[in-house]
Amino acid sequence: QSALTQPASVSGSPGQSITISCTGTSSDVGGYNYVSWYQQHPGKAPKLMIYDVFNRPSGVSDRFSGSKSGNTASLTISGLQAEDEADYYCISYTGTSSPYVFGTGTKVTVL
Amino acid sequence: EEQLVESGGGSVQPGGSLRLSCAASGFTFTRFAMHWVRQAPGKGLEYVSTISGDGRSTYYADSVKGRFTISRDDSKMYLQMTSLRAEDTAMYFCAKDLLEDTTRWGQGTLVTVSS
């Protein structure tokens, strides 16, 4: 199972919006509405930001939103803030004997 | 409060073995599938293994299949790692509910494979 493809880095100025893509196949991202997004700050455990493609856990800012089209899921961060600078990972269910696959990760930089 | 605490990491030579543990508290452990995820130094997250709530079903990433064995009892999950390679060097996290809003992660335990 190959890792889902994400851009290595995305940057934006405070207040701007950025979008991170997560491209898989019809066997993972495209086949199920089970895509989640994690945020990870250095030295910390990952934090769930989006689940089931577009749902936000309680306590996560509504500046974070998710979507999916075909085999590509996307995470959009609106009103970018300094605290959003972190690594972001998508994860999808695959329905195979290796049932989960992570994305390659995207480093978000706030300029 | 739900909590997951990993232990058992350390340094081991290539070809060696190590057993990781994940102690769970604050939730009904046997109701939930549990997972191991690893992260090599400076690299991304990688799925490792899953065990069902009743322990009867197990799943592995291709990279560890045949070398790692996941198991659990009433309050702990384990990862028996054998034939370790340099590329297994990573922080190993245990987690509950990888894809859902009820997810919880531990802080990780570091495994270093080096001669």
Walk me through the topology.
The complex is a heterodimer of chains A (111) and B (115).
Chain A: E1 9-12, E2 18-23, E3 35-40, E4 47-50, E5 64-69, E6 72-77, E7 86-93, E8 100-102, E9 106-110
Parallel strand pairs in A: 1-9
Antiparallel strand pairs in A: 2-6, 3-4, 3-7, 5-6, 7-8, 7-9
Chain B: E1 3-7, E2 10-12, E3 18-25, E4 34-39, E5 45-51, E6 58-60, E7 68-72, E8 76-81, E9 90-96, E10 104-105, E11 109-113
Parallel strand pairs in B: 2-11
Antiparallel strand pairs in B: 1-3, 3-8, 4-5, 4-9, 5-6, 7-8, 9-10, 9-11
Task: Characterise this structure.
The complex is a heterodimer of chains A (111) and B (115). The relative contact order of chain A is 0.34. Helix content of chain A is 0%, strand content 43%. Chain A has strands at residues 9-12, 18-23, 35-40, 47-50, 64-69, 72-77, 86-93, 100-102, 106-110. The termini of chain A are far apart. In chain A, a hairpin with a 6-residue loop joins strand 3 and strand 4 (47-50). With 111 residues, chain A is an all-beta fold. Chain B is built from no helices and eleven strands. Chain B has strands at 3-7, 10-12, 18-25, 34-39, 45-51, 58-60, 68-72, 76-81, 90-96, 104-105, 109-113. In chain B, strands 2, 4, 5, 6, 9, 10 and 11 form a seven-stranded mixed sheet that branches. The mean pLDDT of chain B is 96. Classes of the chains: A mainly beta (111), B mainly beta (115). The A-B interface holds A 1, 3, 34-36, 38, 40, 45-46, 48, 51-52, 55, 57-58, 87, 89, 91, 93, 97-105 and B 35, 37, 44-47, 50, 59-62, 93, 98-101, 103, 105-108.
Keywords:
heterodimer; A: mainly beta; three-stranded antiparallel sheet; globular; B: 115 residues; mainly beta; four-stranded antiparallel sheet; 50% strand
